[in-house]
Amino acid sequence: MIKSSKLILVVSCLFILGSCSSTSNKSSNSKSSSTSGWDYNNSKNGGFETNSKYKEQATGPGLMFVEGGSFTMGRTEQDIFADWNNVPKTVTVSSFYLDETEVRNVDYLEYLYWINRVYGQSYPEVYKKALPDTLVWRDKLGYNEPYVESYLRHPAYRNYPVVGVSWSQANDFCVWRTDRVNERILIDEGILKEDNEQIDENSFNTDAYLARQYEGIVKRNLKNLNPSLGEETRLVRMEDGILLPRYRLPTEAEWEFAALGYVGNTNMENTDERKLYPWNGSSVRNGNKKNQGEIMANFKKSRGDNMGVAGNLNDNADITAPVRSFWPNDYGLYCMAGNVSEWVMDVYRPVIEQTTTTDHRPFRGSVFKTQKRDEDGFIEEKDSLGRITMVDVNVEDNVYRRNYKKSDNINYNDGDIESQMGIDWNNFLNEQSEVDTASVSIDKWNPDAKKYKDNRTGNSSEMYDYGNTTLITDRTRVYKGGSWKDRAYWLVPGTRRYLDQDQSTDAIGFRCAMDRMGAPSSDLRENQRRGTDYSKKKMGSNRR
After folding, report:
1. Could you tell me if residue 343 is left (phi over 0), alpha (psi between -120 and 50 degrees) or otherwise beta?
2. Phi-psi category of 335—alpha, beta or left, where left has phi over 0 and alpha has psi -120 to 50?
3. What is the DSSP letter of 393?
4. Cα 215 to Cα 181: distance, rounded to the nearest angstrom
5. Would 215 be classed as within a structural domain?
6. How much is the pTM?
7. C-alpha angle 472/259/329, rounded to 5°?
8. Which CATH number fits the domain that encloses residue 143?
9. How far apart are CA 435 and CA 181, in angstroms?
C-alpha cells in the first residue's frame, strides 16, 4: 500500500511538471498577450507583432558556432620573457560565432571590387583607403618582390590569408560584410530584388535600412498590421529576426577561448586535459599513430628553417599556407595557431589583472556611440556613402548613470580622472569635461615630445621619439596566435602582442566574429562539436 502511494505520488509530480512545461511552452507561443489579453499579430487589435515562430539565430556565411563558458584566460605556463603581461584569470565568454578560417585574399578582393564599383568614380579615396599594404613583404636583405606584386591578386594565392591589412581596415571590412550578408538575406527572403547598379549613397546599409532611409528595389515587403500607418506593407525590422547582427573582430577573450577549444575536452563540468595549443598535448607535432610526427601548424621551427627538407616539407609552407592546410580545432576553426597572427578588438595594456578586468565578456576599448539626431530627435540623413552618422555619447546626458559617464572608456581604471572614486559629476560639467578626457597623457613627463604631437589626439603619433615616449597608446591594438614568421612560443593562445591600429605586417591577418542572440547553447546539429580526429588526413591540405 505504501509502495502504491509512493508510485501515485511520483506519477502525480511528473504530471504536474509536464503540465507546467507544456503550459510554459504554450504561453511562449501564445497568440495573445499574457500581460494585456490582447491578440498578437492582429490588425484589428492594434497590430502589435511578435515572431512566435522564431527558433534560434541562423549561422551567417563562413561562421562557426562557439559555445561560450568559463575558462582561465592568460598564460598558465612558464613566462620565459618575464613580462607577465597576461596574468591568468577566470572569465566567462558568452556564446558567439567566429569565421572558420582567416579572411582570404579572394574574400578581400571581392570587398575591393565592390568598393571600387560602388564608390570608385565619386569617392576614389574610399577604395584607396581599403587597399592592403603590399609593400609589407619587402625585406632590405631578402628577395620578396614576387610577393609584393602577386600575393594579393594572383589566383595561386586566392585561398591564402590576406595580409598587409591594418586593424582599421579589418573593421571596415566587417562593416561591408555585414551589409552584403543582410542584403543577400533580404533578397533570398523575396523582399528585395538584386540591384547591381548601386552607387554612392544609394547603396544598401543595414543601419540605413532599419532607419527607413533605404528602400532598394522592392519585390515584396512584409504585411503591415499597424492600422494607424495607413500602409499595406512595411520594411523589415530587427524584431522580425530576419537580419543578422554585425560582423566584427573578436575580443581578445573570445579569440583565446575559441583557439583553446576546450569543448572537446570537457566531461560534464570538468575539463579532462588542459591545452597548451589549440590541440592536445605539449608538442607541435601530431602524436596520433597514423599521422605521427606531422606538424600541426605553420610556424618557423628554427632560424633558417621555414618549411623543412626538400622531399619532406614539414608544414609545406615557406610563407603563409592555404587557410585549411591543417587540422581544425574542436570548434571546427582552422589555423588558430600559426599561419598568420590575427587582429582582435582590444586596446593593448601591458598588465591585465583580475582586479581591473570584468569577469564577464572582458574587453578594453569601449567607445560608446549613438546615432546622430537633429533638433527634433530624428536620425539625421545618411551620409554620401549611404551610412548613418554615428557620434560619441554626450557626457551631459549621462551624468546620473552609474554604469558609465563618457563615450571613451579605453583608459578606465588606467589613470584617467573619471575612473576615480568620489567625482562630483554634477559639478564636473565644465568646459574641460565637454571634451572626452580619456586620452592618455603619454607625453606628460617628456619635454621633448612636443615635436611628435598628433594634432588630433594630442599624443605622440607614429613619429615616436623612441626611448623617450612609449609605443603604447589608445591606438595600440592586440594581435594573437603566432604566424609563419614566429617560433612555437607564440602559438600558445595566451600570448599577446601589439601594434598601432593603422599599421600592418606580412604576418598579421584577421577573421570576423558575430554576437550570438538568445540562448548560449544551440539545438542545431551542425553546431554540436566534440573533438577532432587527428588520425584523419589534414582537411584542405595541399600536401598530398
Report:
1. beta
2. left
3. P
4. 16
5. yes
6. 0.85
7. 155
8. 3.90.1580.10
9. 37
